[in-house]
Amino acid sequence: MILVQIALLAMLNAGPSSAQQQITPDAFLDQAVGRTLTFSNFKSGMMIGVEQFLSRDLSVWAQEDGRCSYGQIEIRGPIMCFIYEDFPNPQNCWMPFQAEDKLLVISTTNQQIQRVTGISEDPVVCEGAPLS
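User: That's the sequence. What structure does it adopt?
Assistant: Structure tokens below.
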């Protein structure tokens, strides 16, 4: 876990100076539940995907092929783990951070950093998405 924090701080400090801090999964979910978040790669800026947080323990990920994948959200101490119906990997876990006004998450397995580049009230648009 310490290596994850060091990797994030090193990458963030390589860019413009900003105050960043680890936040709790609950603080992240306070900002996400009932909303749809767009995630982009921290380094390249390329969009990774869109996820609607239906509740504190359920999300729906819009896949590139137009289908949705529902995920159970589990909080394990300082990390959030997402167990999707089509990717049931219990190690798909992320540690949330706040850097100024931006939300970031870093993977606990490969240290990939994703930045939340959009937050909306709009539902995800994909086959099988919930209607309400």
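The two ends are 37 Å apart (CA to CA).
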